[in-house]
Amino acid sequence: MTATESRTVDLASPAEFVPQPPYEAWAAMRRLPELHWQDREGAPGFYSVTRHDHTRTVLRDVKTYSSEWGMTLDSTLGTRDPAAGLMIELTDRPRHARLRKLVTAAITPQFVASLAPIIQGHATRLVDAALRDNRSEGMVNVVTALTAPMPRLTIGSILGIPEEDQERVAAMASRAITGTEGPGAAAPTLAERRRCSETGNNELLMYFVEIIEGEPHRLSENGMVRRLMDIELDEARLTSDEVLLNCLNLAIGGYETTKNAVAAGLYQLASRPGAWQWLREDHARIDAMIEEMLRFDTPAMHLIRTVTEPTTLGGTRLAEGDTVCVWLSAANRDPEVFEAPDEFRIDRSPNSHLSFTIGPHFCLGAVLARLEMRSLFAELLTRVESVEPLSGLVRRPSNFIAGIDRFDVTLRPA
Ligand code: HEM
After folding, report:
1. Ligand 1 near 260 CB (within 6 A)
2. Nearest atom (ligand 1) to Cα of 303
3. Would you state the pLDDT for residue 182?
4. What would the DSSP string read from start to end of 228-283?
């Protein structure tokens, strides 16, 4: 493969990401003396960053690499994103620092501590229900039984929205981030995906407008929606547009990511004889396992940055306005950093994966995502003797979210 040979694998096409993300193509790109370039029809072409060190450079250097021109391939059209400067993920310094301070101030350590028993309660009830289904049906689809409801309920608790709205909110968030209508959806065209994402985003915004303006009494006092509305720090407050867009950011950021990390991770455990038993013997082993799950099947596979001034990266001269696609899934399998990167090593240490990124935009929900994963796996390991896979992973075609739609197992109760 040469640096400009763009049609070998079409990284803009979701179809290339099933049944597996294109790990071999990324490995070939990593060995190139320059960054790989791909043209796109109807959208800017892009350079691919596949090495761990280059990825770190791009994500840390927020002055040279802007987040304001879109953060995914599908949403990057060569114009500034309409939510830039307002939504934390799509904002550069100095406005980002202000937003980050206010949003972080709402996620206090006390707030996270108050969520721990709630998340544990979700884990217990979900495993109860999964074991019941398993008894009556002889199997469970872990996506519908465990990995989708866990972040759906947790994000509901984090935002403080009523339980009866949570399924609808999760479905809108899923449409917005995957650009697909739901499980089994075939990879549509860029225009169709953009329309679907836009619908999901608009529905979510309308939902937050309606509940904040029309029915604020339905919002929990301790939830993030109210916290973002009320937060005041050094006489600064979020504007109403900022509140709305950052509620949207939380709803979208925390659902599909966690859901798929757990589903893909459970698949790795179920496919490895002995792994389940080894973890059951000592729950202290869960934390390293979670990090390996986050590395091995990276939940958010790429991020887009737009170059703000001429620079050089990976042997390539970049000009202002160039689109750079950082493949976190590729960086997480860089052999310069990870020994045997294509092997799932349950006790890998150290594990400097970039799934929550690095630098100023480091994921604000990382602690909560890890807490959800730990609670669910600890509950399963306590109450389930073994997990037997009945199917492979059924992936949603997407080049952004490593989406898992189905994984059937039999759970043998302890
Ligand atoms: C396994 C689960 C998760 C993964 C893999 C993940 C991944 C990421 C990534 C890659 C970014 C960086 C985006 C960028 O730099 O453009 C990010 C940022 C963010 N995440 Fe997460 N996330 C997860 C869970 C969550 C949860 C549960 C929440 C909410 C409670 C959340 C809220 C956010 C927010 C608000 C940001 C923006 C931070 C900023 O721009 O300063 N995430 N996340």
Report:
1. no
2. 16
3. 83
4. HHH--BTTB---HHHHHHHHHHHHHHTSHHHHHHHHHHHHHHHTSTTHHHHHHH-G
1 — pLDDT class (breaks 50, 70, 90)? low
Q: Which fold has domain 24-386?
A: Cytochrome p450 (1.10.630)
Atom of ligand 1 nearest to the CA of 355: 5
- Cα of 278 from ligand 1 centre, angstroms: 30
pLDDT tens figures, 87-124:
999 999 999 999 999 999 999 999 999 999 999 999 99
Look up residue 27 and give its DSSP letter: H
235 or 160, greater pLDDT? 160
C-alpha 171 to ligand 1 mean position (Å) = 18
Residue 400 Cβ < 6 Å to ligand 1: no
Torsion of CA 86, 251, 398, 346, to 10 degrees: 120
**Residue 6 corresponds to which amino acid?**
S
Mutation test residue for ligand 1: of 363, 367, 375, 398, the one with most atoms within 8 Å of CB: 363
Q: For the residues 385-396, what does the mean pLDDT come to?
A: 94
Q: Give the pLDDT score at 2.
A: 52
Record the tokens describing residue 182, joined without a space.
Answer: 């739901």
Cα distance between residue 75 and residue 157, in whole Å: 29
For CA atoms 310, 101, 353, 200, give the dihedral sign: negative
Task: Give residue limits of the domains in the chain.
Answer: 24-386
Give the pLDDT score at 183.
82
Task: Tell me the H-state helices in 297-401.
Answer: 328-331, 366-383
Task: Give every CB contact of residue 358 below 8 A, 6+ residues apart in sequence.
Answer: 56, 59, 60
89 lines ligand 1 (CB under 6 A): yes
Distance 163 CA to ligand 1 centre (A): 23
Could you read off the pLDDT of 158-216 as tens digits, one per residue? 999 999 999 999 999 999 999 988 887 666 789 999 999 999 999 999 999 999 999 99
Helix axes 240-253, 166-178, angle to 10 degrees: 80
